[in-house]
Inverse folding.
């Protein structure tokens, strides 16, 4: 069955950051150096060709884009400087945009202005929602004079709902796409693939082995930075959940749950330091993979950094028992941003949190089938 | 043994004394062959007076050995066993000449390529083989006559056939050297194919400007006589003295033919565009399929407007270019040409021409989707690759189709686009793809022009690809097998403008060298008739490929008129076809007589060099010397 060629796909992917990919003349050098290249030697050239001929379905159904850690070897080796690594990053952005049904992600990837406005808008909506739940009476009265309580509350819930649904849809869609055409797996195969996936995510062993070839101290190493941010993020999430459970749900009447506090402080510190290191890498263009930063890349780092600053501000304020409207507003901003980050997962670069594990799982499962 | 005549001495009365010199060639020869043993074995030959080996015979001291032996030891024949004659035959001939010996009384035996290099592991065998080869050389040289170069008078004028860029370049170069030129152009104007081109790669000049520049130089030159609407209908004579008949059809009936005497002829008749067969990639079946030259013309005429690219009044939003149409054809895949063969050669220019055209489309109509379907991209010239890379960067999508499965086009009825190109794509792992297109452009190659009448005038050599053929693609790239007839440009094979002008100027220089002196010296290795043996049967005439080289004539001999074969040494190439059919051995190629071959074969199969018969000298040694040949036909 002949495949119809569609020239619009590659133009769309190019707008997501693959500015030079048209220069690719399929020499295959990228596949020769790629640590992920299989026996057929098609990684990442297959992805480029599928994009060029406009085969949307096979491009998006393939887990390949999410297996790539963007080590940049391919781009360094490309004789035409077509940027295969940048292309893979663009495909991930394009895939994120395609997987959520609202079209917001597409707009945010393609326009820096839209990204800024939507970020702010979400923050305001979620901030107002938080105010509607729990805030000093003056603040609530001021807010509800502008917008009725029901509106604020329902829009907030709506945003939360859309964000959650998008995440769920992304997860389900990725599972369906990446597993398409695979034979029904056995329980033991699933268990084994899950074990491998968890092991890789927890240790980032492959990512570290790829990055190990690059010289420099640990804080300049992409894999270690990523690992620390990931654990920092996870630690903060855990601390928040623990706080919520011990301070809000359980009737223990504690003012501080120290284990959560310690986990949160350490995680936050790790994340701040490593987000700083990541920003430094992007500013100095330390290597090929950070040579070209889109607004979406800066957005995530800036967001995490702002989250860290407001978090520590609150922590210091709580420690010093400082109180007042400034502290309240910072707390509100922190809470609104944290909420926004989680709710926007399926719409932003953070979506790899969903897609990468599923892609790894699907690949490991298929590899077992093949074996 | 062959019957040898031992009745006479050298004409001078001296005995035949051969000097044999075995070269070590550094170690190239002596590491495998026992050169001392070879020299010693040859010393036993009854005609060998001196036999030595030496480290480098081509060096000055090596040559001095020969010269000293000629002067002091009265050596009158020389055999050097060394590397290849292409390297040093002339070196040693000159050494003989310096010593006062006829330079043709010399034989070169190649024991490097033919013995040491090919029998590296077999020292004894290689040595035995070398002995026999050198013995054969000795047997040949003792039967060698003195020879003298053939001298031919020269007409300082050149006829250039074809008024395209190649012909004009050659004419301007020749006239600049002070030679007269007759430039014969079949068409009504100078310029040829380049005049049809808009911009040319890689300089981006206008074809018309190039042509205009050259035309101005041609027309402004007093030594160039331009004959438009004219053809060459007669080509007699030989190098130095051709008699060329130029026919101008438009002239008055009694004034159409014009005889030009010229020392050399440059052929610059160019090429034709390949015309696709009916149905080849849809050609002739749909207006959406055009050739590259037609598309270039349409692109040139299409105004820049909001309507975008229009070809033949139809929009072309999506254009597929197919390479190698009419070139690199494969038996069984492509329909054969009129001669029953496919065009298996690469037309060389179409890849860059196509990409150059794609760049023009992209820069003038950036919204057009461009597809490029190729077997390979051969943008080999300086600056050509940039067109490929730029076209790619600007978004042209490349497909690579398998040799045996060329893309097909099917017109669509009522679809969004005019049709679909279907191709198997190696870059997509051999999958079949369907490309929506409004226009298909076939990158047609070059085919030889029909110049059969010109070729037939002198049986000019034509290659398997039907283009005119040079003597040697590297060493004699613009000379034909007919001395004095030179090739310039695409009549010889596909070339771009740059290469055609390079070839043309090379041909001009080659002609200027030929005609630089009042006489030309040619190698004396031509057929010679022994009047006493020739019975006038005429078998040789039937075998001769070279018009005018051999004729039958009545000659006076011992008071009687007899019919003999007569050789025109200026036109004979020394191929030996005549000698092969002459049963009385009356006709021989000087320097390569059948008697010499017989003796060489006998020497090679002989068990013992020392047992070879002593040869005084063959009977009837004649000094073959040609008077300056000055008459044309």
């Amino acid at each position: 069955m002949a495949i119809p060629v569609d020239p619009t796909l590659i133009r769309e992917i190019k707008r997501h950051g693959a500015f030079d990919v048209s220069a690719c003349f399929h020499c295959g050098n990228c596949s020769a150096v790629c640590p992920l290249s299989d026996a057929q030697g098609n990684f990442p050239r297959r992805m480029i060709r599928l994009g060029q001929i406009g085969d949307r379905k096979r491009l998006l159904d393939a887990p390949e884009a999410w297996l790539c850690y963007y080590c940049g070897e391919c781009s360094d080796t490309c004789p035409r400087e077509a940027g295969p690594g940048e292309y893979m990053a663009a495909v991930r952005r394009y895939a994120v945009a395609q997987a959520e049904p609202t079209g917001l992600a597409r707009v945010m990837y393609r326009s820096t202005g839209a990204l800024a406005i939507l970020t702010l808008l979400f923050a305001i909506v979620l901030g107002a929602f938080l105010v509607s739940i729990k805030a000093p009476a003056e603040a609530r009265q001021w807010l509800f004079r502008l917008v009725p309580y029901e509106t604020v509350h329902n829009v907030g819930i709506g945003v939360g709902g859309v964000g959650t649904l998008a995440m769920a849809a992304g997860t389900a869609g990725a599972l369906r796409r990446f597993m398409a055409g695979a034979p029904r797996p056995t329980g033991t195969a699933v268990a084994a693939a899950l074990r491998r996936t968890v092991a890789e995510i927890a240790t980032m062993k492959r990512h570290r082995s790829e990055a190990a070839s690059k010289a420099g101290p640990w804080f300049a190493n992409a894999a270690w930075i990523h690992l620390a941010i990931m654990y920092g993020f996870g630690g903060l999430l855990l601390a928040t959940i623990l706080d919520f459970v011990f301070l809000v749900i359980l009737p223990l009447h504690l003012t501080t749950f120290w284990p959560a506090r310690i986990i949160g402080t350490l995680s936050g510190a790790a994340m701040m330091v490593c987000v700083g290191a990541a920003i430094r890498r992007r500013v100095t263009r330390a290597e090929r993979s950070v040579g070209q930063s889109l607004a979406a890349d800066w957005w995530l780092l800036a967001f995490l950094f702002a989250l860290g600053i407001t978090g520590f501000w609150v922590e210091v304020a709580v420690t010093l028992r400082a109180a007042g409207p400034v502290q309240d507003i910072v707390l509100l901003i922190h809470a609104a941003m944290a909420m926004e980050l989680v709710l926007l997962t399926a719409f932003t670069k953070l979506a790899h949190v969903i897609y990468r594990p599923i892609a790894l799982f699907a690949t490991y499962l298929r590899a077992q089938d093949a074996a | 043994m062959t019957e040898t005549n031992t009745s006479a001495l050298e004409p001078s009365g001296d005995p035949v004394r051969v000097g044999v010199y075995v070269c070590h060639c550094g170690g190239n020869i002596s590491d495998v062959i026992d050169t001392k043993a070879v020299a010693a074995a040859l010393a036993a030959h009854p005609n060998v007076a001196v036999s030595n080996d030496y480290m480098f015979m081509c060096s000055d001291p090596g040559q001095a050995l020969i010269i000293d032996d000629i002067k002091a030891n009265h050596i009158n024949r020389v055999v050097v066993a060394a590397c290849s004659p292409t390297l040093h035959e002339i070196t040693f001939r000159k050494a003989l000449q310096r010593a006062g010996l006829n330079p043709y009384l010399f034989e070169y035996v190649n024991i490097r390529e033919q013995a040491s290099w090919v029998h590296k592991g077999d020292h004894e065998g290689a040595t035995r083989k070398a002995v026999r080869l050198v013995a054969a050389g000795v047997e040949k040289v003792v039967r060698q006559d003195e020879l003298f170069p053939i001298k031919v008078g020269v007409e300082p004028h050149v006829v250039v056939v074809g008024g395209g860029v190649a012909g004009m370049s050659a004419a301007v170069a020749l006239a600049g050297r002070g030679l007269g030129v007759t430039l014969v152009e079949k068409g009504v104007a100078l310029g040829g194919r380049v005049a049809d081109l808009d911009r040319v790669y890689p300089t981006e000049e206008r074809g018309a400007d190039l042509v205009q520049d050259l035309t101005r130089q041609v027309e402004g030159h007093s030594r160039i006589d331009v004959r438009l609407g004219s053809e060459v209908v007669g080509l007699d004579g030989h190098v130095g003295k051709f008699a060329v008949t130029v026919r101008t059809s438009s002239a008055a009936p009694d004034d159409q033919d014009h005889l030009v005497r010229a020392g050399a002829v440059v052929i610059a008749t160019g090429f034709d565009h390949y015309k696709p067969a009916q149905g080849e990639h849809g050609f002739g079946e749909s207006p959406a399929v055009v050739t590259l030259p037609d598309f270039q013309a349409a692109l040139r005429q299409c105004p820049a407007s909001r309507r975008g690219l229009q070809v033949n009044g139809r929009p072309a939003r999506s254009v597929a270019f197919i390479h190698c149409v009419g070139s690199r054809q494969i038996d069984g895949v492509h329909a054969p040409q009129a001669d029953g063969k496919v065009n298996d050669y690469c037309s060389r220019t179409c890849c860059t021409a196509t990409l150059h055209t794609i760049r023009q489309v992209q820069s003038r109509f950036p919204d057009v989707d461009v597809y490029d379907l190729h077997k390979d991209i051969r943008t080999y010239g300086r600056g050509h690759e940039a067109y490929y890379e730029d076209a790619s960067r600007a978004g042209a999508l490349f497909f690579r189709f398998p040799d045996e499965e060329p893309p097909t086009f099917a017109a669509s009825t009522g679809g969004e686009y005019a049709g679909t190109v279907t191709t198997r794509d190696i870059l997509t792992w051999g999958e079949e793809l369907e490309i929506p297109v409004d226009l298909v452009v076939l990158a047609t190659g070059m085919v030889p022009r029909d110049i059969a009448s010109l070729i037939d005038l002198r049986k000019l050599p034509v290659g398997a690809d039907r283009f005119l053929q040079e003597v040697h693609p590297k060493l004699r790239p613009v000379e034909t097998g007919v001395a004095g007839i030179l090739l310039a440009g695409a009549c010889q094979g596909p070339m771009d403008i740059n290469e055609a002008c390079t070839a043309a100027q090379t041909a001009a220089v080659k002609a200027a060298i030929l005609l630089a002196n009042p006489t030309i010296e040619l190698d004396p290795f031509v057929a010679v008739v022994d009047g006493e043996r020739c019975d006038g049967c005429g078998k040789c005439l039937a075998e001769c490929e070279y018009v005018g080289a051999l004729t039958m004539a009545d000659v006076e001999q011992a008071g009687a008129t007899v019919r003999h074969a007569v050789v025109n040494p200026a036109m004979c190439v020394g191929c030996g076809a005549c000698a092969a059919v002459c049963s009385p051995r009356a006709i021989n190629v000087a320097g390569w007589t059948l008697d010499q071959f017989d003796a060489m074969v006998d020497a090679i199969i002989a068990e013992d060099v020392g047992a070879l018969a002593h040869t005084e000298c063959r009977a009837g040694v004649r000094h073959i010397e040609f008077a300056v040949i000055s008459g044309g036909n």
Notes: Chain A has a mean pLDDT of 88. DSSP finds 18 helices and one strand in chain A. The two ends of chain A are 29 Å apart (CA to CA).
